[in-house]
Predict the 3D structure of the following.
Amino acid sequence: MPRICLNVLVGIPASGKTTYYQQIESTPNRTFNVVNVCYDTYIEIDRKFEMFCSKPGSYKISRQTLVPSVEAIISTIMEGKVATTLDSLLCSWQHTFGKPLEISTSAVPSDDYLFLIDDNNYYRSMRWDWARMAKKLSLGFLETYFDILLPVALERNAAREHPVSEDVITRMWTRLEKPCGKLFRWEQSSIFIQEQLDISGILSSIENCFANPEKASDPPPTTSLPMEQSAVHKLDILLRKAISKKTASIKDSMDRHQLRSYVELLQERKNFILHEFRHVEQNVPEEMFDNLVEELF
């Protein structure tokens, strides 16, 4: 029976998502097929970010077309109808999105498919669409987060042939909700990518994803008990310390104006994280705050 893993990529533009796909796709003797669902190819989220922000709900509508199209293709593969129904669905995909779906076959015949969901996925609700599908269809589920400093991403982006607006990248970075399995149980299968790609470790995580598909469960709670004011105060102090630490690590590479702008972004990020803590699945013990702030910031 075919095995399918949904690998949801999380990261701002120029954080390394394309390189990640290329490294996996070019792995010698790869034993699984790779389906690259690159949102910017079919929806162009990076280039149309301003439009999506100015028209509430427009991005969600675009996603509502793509997600069920992927689900239909996955269902067809799982039902063993590759030779008949799949070709029709792929033709429909090209008609709907204007470009063919990228499928890279394995070096040896295989029924395993890795679906790379290549999007910024900066809101947790975006990733939940795919986690919910994984639970519904008993698929493997894995999140890959590209942990990059904002100045590094901006520098990489500036060197691109078609750079994304710096303001778009900055706003995405500020609002990005990092995967956190300690707060959200369905995000426990996550890997973090920093400077170097550990391709053997990545392939091991993918194989584990194939071997351990998700199981149907109740949807995550959307509310939690209010956080005690003393806990909010402690969290605020820890976030301020995190800002000081990040500022100290980057100040030598920025002029005064750049540093001031960066600190303002960190302050906005701090407020965003405080808001995020109020909407977790479960109450968070205060002894976990230090580690969680490090992970989320």
Q: What stands out?
A: Residues 229-250 form the longest helix (22 residues).
